[in-house]
Specification:
This protein is of the alpha/beta class and about 270 residues long. It has a single domain, classed as TIM Barrel (Alpha-Beta Barrel). The chain is built from 9 helices and 12 strands. The protein has a 5-stranded mixed β-sheet. Strands 7-6-5-2-12 form a 5-stranded parallel β-sheet. Strands 3-4 form a two-stranded parallel ribbon. Helix 1 links the parallel strand 3 and strand 4. Helix 3 runs parallel beside helix 4 and helix 8 packs across helix 9.
């Protein structure tokens, strides 16, 4: 849990964190392979149900590009849909969102651009043409990112933002933290690299400001998340948000108690993250 930064009064947002969307039984076709990443990959049929369920809430997803310096009202709470890892399925996801008139946010680890299972440069520019937001997901997708040196953190954020800016033809000022391991140093390096909105994996709707970079939490969507639960999260229902918050805190306590053994045990159970 990140304790640094100051809370932005009046700023709140609900963000759903998706990854890849794949056909049943073909999890390794898009994004990072293995059991751990597959926990976050939705079956394409289920994803369509998610979109329909979210649409039924009468809540239209927004673009973070419109998340300006002043909130539209104290009760305003925009909904953002984000997609991590830059998997090849992002193009089809983008088409589905565009068909509904919704913007998506796609976060790309640039060292994987054009590799099997990942977007190429043409796919990234196509997403931009559809009206979606492209952001950085670092260069090499280091997990945990918080263990990098200050120099390495700056390299991950600056180079990735530069590469993506050259592809899309505009400044890239949004990003998301690989693996959810955020710290004050990670956020400060992002801010120093020109990132103005950084998504974490902490399940909160409050927004923090670290050196001019807004930190937004996200609610995780897993492979087996029912469409009804995604709709409840999008609507801001308290129950599913509290459950994710409790799970996040429990994992945080486990990480503190077990130290390096936490990741060793997780990798043994799920494979490489």
């Amino acid at each position: 849990m990140l304790s640094g930064g100051r809370r932005k009064r009046g700023f709140r947002a609900i963000t759903l964190m998706y990854h890849d969307v794949v056909k049943s039984g073909d999890a390794d076709s898009s994004g990072f392979p293995g059991r751990a990443p597959s926990r976050y990959k939705l079956d394409s049929v289920l994803f369509e149900r998610h979109l329909s369920a979210i649409a039924s809430t009468a809540t239209s997803p927004a673009s973070v590009a419109d998340f300006g310096e002043a909130p539209r009202g104290r009760s305003s709470r925009p909904l953002f849909l984000t997609f991590d890892d830059g998997g090849a399925s992002a193009r089809l996801i983008g088409e589905a969102l565009a068909g509904m008139g919704w913007p998506g946010h796609f976060f790309i680890p640039v060292d994987f651009i054009g590799k099997p299972g990942f977007l190429d440069e043409g796919g990234i520019t196509t997403l931009v043409q559809m009206g979606h937001v492209i952001g950085t997901h670092s260069c090499s997708h280091p997990v945990p990112m918080s263990r990098l040196t200050d120099k390495q953190l700056l390299e991950e954020w600056r180079r990735s933002a530069t590469v993506l800016s050259e592809i899309v033809g505009d400044s890239v000022v949004t990003g998301s933290v690989p693996g959810g391991y955020v710290s004050g140093r990670v956020a400060e390096a992002a801010a120093a690299s020109g990132i103005r909105v950084l998504f974490t994996s902490e399940p909160v709707e409050s927004v923090r400001d670290i050196q001019g970079c807004l930190l937004l939490g996200r609610y995780a969507i897993l492979a087996r998340t029912p469409a009804e639960r995604a709709a409840r999260l999008a609507r801001g229902d308290l129950g599913p948000r509290l459950r994710q918050r409790a799970s996040w805190r429990a994992k945080g306590l486990a990480k503190v108690a077990l130290g390096d053994r936490y990741r060793t045990l997780r990798s043994a159970l799920l494979g490489t993250a």
